[in-house]
Amino acid sequence: MGVLRVILGDHLSRDVAALDGWEAGDVVLMVEVAEETTYVPHHKQKIAFILSAMRHFAEELHGEGIEVDYITLDDPENSGSFTGEIERAVARHAPERIVVTEPGEWRVRAMIETWTALTGLPVEVREDDRFLCSRGRFARWAEGRKGFRMEFFYREMRRETGLLMEGDKPVGGQWNFDADNRKPLPRGTRLPQRLRFPPDAMTQAVIELVATRFPDNFGDLSPFGWAVTRADALSALDHFIAEGLPSFGDVQDAMKRGEPFLYHGLISPYLNVGLLTAREVCLAAETAWRRGAAPLNAAEGFIRQILGWREYVRGIYWHQMPGYAETNALDATRPLPWFYWSGKTDMACIAEVVGDTRRNAYAHHIQRLMVTGNFALLAGIRPAEIEAWYLAVYVDAFDWVELPNVHGMVMFADGGLLASKPYAASGAYIDRMSDYCAGCRYDPKIKVGEGACPFNLLYWNFIAGNAATLRGNPRMAMPYRTWDAMDAARREKIVAEAGRFLDGLSPDPAGGRPRRGQIALDL
Ligand code: FAD
Ligand code: DLZ
Ligand code: SF4
User: Fold this and answer.
1) Under DSSP, is residue 502 helix (H, G, I), strand (E, B) or coil?
2) The ligand 1 atom nearest the CA atom of 365
3) If you count Cβ atoms within 10 Å of the first and of the last residue's Cβ in the chain, which end, N or C, has fewer?
4) Which ligand is nearest to the CA of 10?
């Protein structure tokens, strides 16, 4: 035969590089493998989403007359790994060479590098040109810089793509409208009903497979409403542009009990597996603004997330890996508290975000950053443990995007490469941006003593405990001035109470540590 074209679970785009130049006689290989479904204990919906999207994509290719060799997870001959399946496929098809698009993760890239020695065949790894910034382009931007600030990267990307530009000037005269995008949700706001996609027979079969194979994994499997085809993902995008985008900007950072989606796009899983492209999503938002269907602060805020943050974190990942994951600038070593899995805590904000995550395999950016993330930072959770949690629980989680967000943005474990200061906040932030505190046993206005919000205690304890590393950071001058001005007895009390609170955090209420892949929920 001709070429063995390998399509991984996040390569589900018809124009993915590995399919370029397809000819009759070539075979596309797609494999569901235990190694991928268990490298972290993924949320049940995440496994179902990826496997179902893979099966639908294979069916579409087949419909075009492309030969697809598709190995299911329950195939008795399945070796359980990408590498094992390459070896078996080479034996079955005797190809003259192997073509694959570069994978999204360092871990898989290292595997692919063994394939030539294993099979004796040339392996062509093609650039993933679905991203707007190539790895080479990012490396050129990063060269010689000490700190990588997203805002400067973003401006270059705006210039290069022409998105929201008038000549060489940003439309509206400003690059960034963030200052307009920090409002809490006004009372009585009527939020749009979100589009959900009832499982078809193929998805239903995958749901049953996941229920049988992964009964103890975190998260609800039903109701499952994610799109698993490009056509449905495009409908989800259209729906968001019409119903969500116009209000996306103003309340982008707001949080509300019982409203996990607000005006967010809910498109990250589709972008990340390839059902939608970054370019078409950005163009859809720009077109909505040009038609007058969305204000500029909304369109710019949304485009910045994709053209800016998404491309930037991917650039950081490939530029810094593999050493990036190993740093621990704040020497954080505490084990992950069990309530990240169970949701059982008196902190109403954490209980709400973990509950949303369990039900939907989704939480929006500020929930991830300022609730579960902020807590992990303030409590000094070991970066690798909180990273494994984020990689497991979200339907959109892939190492290249999860790691910089958690390691850099949340945990400051890279010492400030990605963020100029830690995103540390006390309870006042959560109180301002959400209605969570109204239903909480703690009070965000109490700083120390009976009823004090743990985020208040932990915030100052974090400031005190990390003074050696953070005091010299000019952006941290204000909190250190406030801390220094506090009377000594109060400072001592805060540190003592925070210490008692932290000592009470349990990594596993049942005693013993949870086994990877066996996260039994106790709700
Ligand atoms: P919207 O709010 O509608 O934003 C639109 C799009 O912008 C998203 O779909 C996403 O593609 C992109 N985007 C927004 N923020 C970021 C960002 N910080 N980094 C990269 N892309 C961004 N996103 C993932 O796709 N996978 C992850 O594993 C992931 N882990 C995260 C972990 C933490 C701790 C934090 C703070 C953020 C993480 N993000 C991750 C980014 C962001 O939270 C999600 O992309 C977003 O919540 C997805 O929902 P949405 O499509 O409704 O996003
Ligand atoms: C995340 C995931 C899961 C759960 N299962 C599979 C799978 O069975 N087969 C597959 O090709 N991909 C899967 N994926 C996505 C891969 O982990 C993803 O392609 C890599 O992260 C790319 O580096
Ligand atoms: Fe969270 Fe503190 Fe508010 Fe409770 S009072 S919901 S712990 S921020």
Assistant:
1) helix
2) 43
3) C
4) 2
Q: Which residue shows structure tokens 């290719």? A: 61
- Per-residue tokens: 426: 């006390």
In DSSP terms, 6 is beta-bridged to 29, 100
Do you know the residue count of the chain?
523
| CB atoms near residue 230 (< 10 Å) | 20
pLDDT at 510: 65
Ligand 1 nearest atom to the CA of residue 240, by list position: 3
Contacts 24+ apart (CB under 8 A), 305-310: 305/365, 306/271, 306/278, 306/281, 306/282, 307/132, 307/154, 307/157, 307/158, 307/161, 307/163, 307/278, 307/282, 308/150, 308/151, 308/153, 308/154, 308/157, 309/150, 310/271, 310/278, 310/401
39's CB contacts (< 8 A; 6+ apart) are 107
Cβ 32 under 6 angstroms from ligand 2: yes
Instruction: Report residues of the chain scoring pLDDT below 70.
Output: 181, 509-523
Q: pLDDT digits over 217-262, tens only?
A: 999 999 999 999 999 999 999 999 999 999 987 888 899 999 999 9
Ligand 3 atom at minimum distance from 442 CA? 5
The whole-model pTM stands at 0.96
Q: What is the pLDDT of residue 276?
A: 98
Query: For residue 73, which ligand has an atom nearest its CA?
Result: 2
Ligand 3 pocket residues where CB is under 6 Å? 347-349, 427, 430-431, 436-437, 440, 442-444, 453-455
Token couple for 483:
């801390």
